[in-house]
Amino acid sequence: MRIRGDHERTPFDFLTIAFHWLTAGLISFQAMSGLLLQCFEGKLPQILDFHRSAGTAVWCIALMRLVWRATFAKFPQFPDSMSNIQRWLVSRSEQLLYALLLIQPVTGLVMTLLLGEPFQLFVWTVPALVSRNLHLWATALTVHRVGAYCLFAMVGAHAARALAHHYLLRDDVLEMMAPWMKRFRRPAENYLSSPADPGLDPGEGKGTQPARVRALHSAQSASVRSVRSVVVRPHPQNN
Ligand code: HEM
Ligand code: HEM
User: Fold this and answer.
1) pLDDT digit string, tens, across residues 160-180
2) 145 within ligand 2 shell (Cβ under 6 A)
3) Which of 23, 71, 108, 142 has the fewest CB neighbours in a 10 Å radius?
4) How many whole angstroms separate alpha carbon 22 and alpha carbon 52?
C-alpha cells in the first residue's frame, strides 16, 4: 500500500528491486523459450525442462513478492504529478500482473501433468500423477498460450510506461525501481517533471518551462551578469 504523494521520494527497498528484476529476467527467458517451443512444437526436451523450472520459479518468486509487499517492503509514494485515475490504473495493472504471474505457471503445470508422463522440475523427477488426457491437454495449451500473450502484452505496456516516464517525462519513476539509472538533476529541473505544479502558468504543459523556472533562470543569469560586470572585465568578444 502506498501513501499519498510527497516531494521526498525514496526508492523501492533492495529485496523488492531484486525480486522485480529477477522476475523480469525469467519472463524474458520464458518468452524466448516459449517462442522456440512453439516453433518446434514442444520437441526440445532440454529447453522444455528449463522452461518448466523457470516458470515454476516465477510462481514462487511472485508468492514471495506478495508476502514481502504485505509485510516489510518499502514503496515510494506516488509522484505528486500523478492524478487519482493514474494511481488507480497503476495499482490495478500491478494486481493484474501479479494475477498473471501466479496463473500462468499453473496452466503450464496442468498441461504438463495432463501428458501423464514423469517430468523434470529443477533437480527432481515428478512422477506421472494423472492419466494421459490429450483432449484436456489441448485445451490447457490454448489457455497457456492466451495467458502468455496477455502477460507479454501487459509487461510490454508496463515497460513502455516506465521508459516513457524516464525518457519523455524525465521524472524519477524508473529510477525508483532502477536506482543505478539515477541522473544528475538540478533542483529547478524537478519542476519540469511536475505537470500538476501549481506554479504553472495556465495553458503551460509538459515540456515547457514553468514560469517559476524561467524566472529563476533569468534571475540567475541577471545576477551572474551583474557580478561579472563588477569583478570580471568584460571581454570584447562577449559584448
Ligand atoms: C518483465 C516482467 C515485469 C514484471 C512482471 C513487472 C512487474 C512489476 C510490478 C508487480 C511492479 C509493482 C512493484 C512490485 O510489486 O514489485 C512493478 C513496478 C515497476 N516496474 Fe516492472 N515488471 C516487469 C518489467 C519491467 C521492466 C522491463 C521495466 C522497465 C523498463 C519495469 C519498470 C518498473 C517500474 C519503473 C516500476 C515502478 C512503477 C511505479 O512506481 O509506478 N518493469 N513492476
Ligand atoms: C510465467 C511463466 C510461463 C510463461 C510466460 C510461459 C509461456 C509459454 C509459451 C509462450 C509457450 C509456447 C506456447 C505455444 O506453443 O504456442 C509455452 C509452452 C509450454 N509451456 Fe510455458 N510458460 C510459463 C510457465 C510454464 C510452466 C511452469 C510449465 C510447466 C511446469 C510450462 C509448460 C509449458 C509446456 C509443456 C509448453 C510446450 C507446449 C507444447 O508442447 O507445445 N510453462 N509456455
Assistant:
1) 999 999 999 999 999 999 999
2) yes
3) 71
4) 16
38 lines ligand 2 (CB under 6 A): yes
Query: How far is the centre of ligand 1, averaged over its atoms, from the C-alpha of 23 (Å)?
Result: 9
Domain ranges (residues) in the chain: 6-184, 191-228
Q: What is the pTM (predicted TM-score) of this model? A: 0.82
Torsion angle in degrees (nearest 10) through CA of 86, 92, 95, 100: -110
Say if strands 124-126 and 119-121 run parallel, antiparallel, or are unpaired: antiparallel
Inter-residue contact 135 to 14 (CB < 8 Å): no
Distance 29 CA to ligand 1 centre (A): 16
Neighbours of 117 (CB within 10 A): 11
CATH number of this structure's domain 6-184, picked from the four choices 2.60.120, 1.20.950, 3.30.70, 2.60.40? 1.20.950
CA of 132 from ligand 1 middle (Å) equals 38
Q: Is the CB of 174 under 6 A from ligand 1?
A: yes
| Cβ 212 vs Cβ 48: under 8 Å | no
Task: Please write the tens of the pLDDT for every residue from 7-50.
Answer: 568 999 999 999 999 999 999 999 999 999 999 998 899 999 99
User: Looking up cell 516459449, which residue turns up?
Assistant: 34
**Which of 104, 144, 145, 146 has most ligand 2 atoms within 8 Å of CB, for mutation?**
144
Is 200 within 8 Å of 211 (Cβ atoms)?
yes
188 near 216, Cβ under 8 Å?
yes
